[in-house]
Predict the 3D structure of the following.
Amino acid sequence: MGMTITQKILARHAGRDSVAEGENVWVDVDVLMTNDVIAPQMIGVFESQAGSDAPVWDADKVVLIPDHYIFTADQHAHRNIETMRDFAKRKGIRHFYDADFLPEGFQGYTPCYESPLETDYMGVCHLTLPQKGHTRPGELLLGTDSHTCTHGAFGEFSSGIGSTDGAFVLATGKLWLKVPASMLFTFSGEMPPYLMAKDLILHAIGEIGADGATYRAMEFAGEAISGLNMDERMTICNMAIEAGGKNGIIAADEVTERFVRQRSDKPFETVFSDSKADYVSAMEFDVSAMEPTLACPHSPGIRATERQVEDVEIDRSYIGSCTGGKTTDFIAAARVLRGREVRAETFIVPATTEIDAELDRLTIGGRTLRQIFVEAGCKVGPASCAACLGGPEDTFGRANEPLTVVSTTNRNFPGRMGHAEARIYLASPLTAAASAVTGHITDPREMIDFDRTIGAA
Amino acid sequence: MGEKIRGKAFVVGDNVDTDQIIPAMHLVYDPSDPQQRKLYGRFALSGVPVEQSGLPDGNVPFVADGADKSEFAVIIAGRNFGCGSSREHAPLAISEAGCHAVIAESYARIFYRNSVNGGYLVPLETPLRLIEHIATGTEVELDLSEGVLTDTAAGQNHKLNPLGDVAEIVAAGGIFDYARKTGLLESK
């Protein structure tokens, strides 16, 4: 019997020829990532279990990325960044993207970096990892954040874990994993210019529900997927956890390899599913017939087409996060917002400083993306996770009241963006931008004047 | 294992995610500081919308205002308990509140792993939709070795699913102790 790409990667990392669904295997980890909200707990467990002088298993395989609570006056949040700093120094961890503009012991609201090009700080971990060359096909990456499934977009196994599991990897380089059954999602047909990866994945999650892939691998394939650039493929895999998936994965191709080779000089081996691989389910979607799609309050699994909810008035539009704050997302939003003004308060948050710099470099019709956003009346914040997960009350874009928000983020359970009664509609950046202009949920087809898919490879 | 947990049940619905179990704004407390660790107990399940908190009637806080410990001994939940983020502060918060067992129809996998590998609480699965049979405040007894929940007043027994292959990790008290027991890690 053949194996899926997920099974093959797990087998290889368990030192085995093959593994079967449901087996527990001990695997070797290639990269372990953690961020500022989880690091203190993980370090605490590591030091109490392994000892405070214990070395980490491989300092070059550990990546520390402060990104969650950066721009805030919360003193505990500042302390968490200092905890990472201290740990990186003591353990000799060089892949540390420090918020170097935050002085030691600083009191008050964090000052912003002066230039996105002149700081070690990157921002959202799931974009920092690929942009800094830590993602490669065939590898096994674990991170202490549920959206670590994002990196399956590079043809690798990646999954989110907790802090005790993280501490265990830190000590041993190993972890036990149950081999998941794989679900195959094939997206066929030609991608219309008004759709983006977010529409596709929200459609799929709506089909199976917010727990429809629990304990399972979600493998994405088909011509509509291979036609997407890496930003868009990451949007797809990022959302696997919103259906409960253990990992999302897309086989690497020349688009993946080009991206990775520009950023990493380590060798890697691309892995593919066998043609006779065993899938627990196989679904096929024709993207040419799909509509702009949203997830309604309060679950990523409550699907609606734009037409079903277009009367909903919104207070706010939010464009940011690991799934919706990438360069491609901002190009899409700028195509809609160029020469228009927003009626709903609109927040723009680039995921990383690299993407922040792109807002000044990329132009449409002679205006930079940043100029387009500012001229449309949007508020543009510094790179971080910001209000995607609420965070401290002074977080940029946080819903501190029961607002109705259209958001390009990935999760809309009660309280996710702050207030427990805020109503969050998840949507593509095209839909979020079009809705910002009208003040109600709006089909981007009403506003676009282009005929090519924005996120094309 | 082998012990019995007695006390009141606290009932919640489906898809109770980690933001409801411990809202993200509270993740700043350092769990290795005993005083700050207590705060996780204080805010456990504080993000559950009030009308969903303590079913069937709602409006029951899991932890009384200003307290660090819950008066409830067992959480009974519907499907997909602990979905959302990977924060281990979720099982930690429930455990800090003094509650060491959850019975749900199903779990999100990261929450399940964290509960077991971190040794915070025992996540048990029920084949029956218990949230329709047991109300918040009902006195229950959970026999962990037999995998049975008893509604004490009604004298009714509910058989729970066996823990399966994580039973050894639960018995060891977490992944580090399990690894020491099985020789993967050297003993302390």
Summary: Residues 197 and 232 of chain A are 5 Å apart (CA to CA).
